[in-house]
Amino acid sequence: MTLSGKCVIAGIGATAFGKHPGRSSVSLNVEAIRAALADAGVEKGQVDALFVKPPTSDFQMLYTVKVASALGIRTRMGGAWDQGGAANATLISIACMAIEAGQIDVAVVSFADTPRTGNAAVYARPRGDDSLYGWFGTLPGYAMIMQRHMGVHGTPREAFGEIAVAARRHGAANPKAQVRNPLSMADYMAADPLVAPLTRDDCTLISDGGGAVVVMSARRAAELGVAAPVPILGWGYGQTYEEVTYRADLTTTMATVSGATALGMAGLTPERVECVQLYDCFTIAALMTLEDYGFCRKGQAADFVKDGALQLDGALPFNTSGGLLSETGMPGMQLIHEGVRQMRGTSVNQVRGARNVVISNQGGVMQTHSTLVLGQ
Description:
12 helices, 18% strand, Thiolase-like, two-stranded antiparallel sheet, acetyl-CoA C-acyltransferase activity, 2 domains, alpha/beta, 11 strands, single chain
């Protein structure tokens, strides 16, 4: 029995993105959840499940209990899920399965963090034994993968520039984006490397903020008169245990499994997808996801993305609110929100006639991956 379309995202809510000095991640979660409940038209007393991605910069035990206590709710189910940036999409699918099993009725999924004004040290942590040889922080792993893709497939820097330029163009039109200045290809190509070949324009923002969604069955949404429910058509996961230095192939990820599972559940092929919101913590991540999801063959992404194909008026509109490169570095939830807006027809960069959207979330250095497909 398929679960495609049985559940919906009934509401979305977020804080402002950027800097929140003095705010706790718990308080940002509460703000985002209240906004999502108001968007869905649901009272907090109707929530019987709370699933939270723990803050990356300040991991805490029993974190969901703290958020529930601050909200003043008791739930039948709850928990925190650590899958890095892949967690938000995964938690939405877990909520769907619990709803279909009859264990819960209305679920909230949320995430908030304060690495911009709090503690960003987690992004600079040493990477196992390789730290003895200078492997610190997140950038070296992605730089190595990007260098390998360029070497094996002859991928030019301009291909990554197409991703950065599209994200920044869309973010420039989004009044809530953290970075709103557009980027030209000339400026992208002229930038100095941070960790070669990565430049600043290839890398995610670091942001404070929070976001939440309300999930329920389509039947329950109809009973409650939810104004704009968005059906969840499919989901999938993929995960590897390997650190970058131990992988046999640096140019393919478990997004191949996650994407194929989600599209299969939704009854879609890549050719029928009309809009994508792809995890762009680094441009190489988004480019490889395009390949691994089957939008183009491995090594052919440079041809696929050229000439503005990812921009709003292109063949496959991408990260229409700006993504992690322009809207906010808050991992994953902002992409889900924009997918919902596209299906509601309320995006500031609305894709005309879009009836489905594929969303990717990713964690670690391409170690975890989750996919959502939304429809109308």
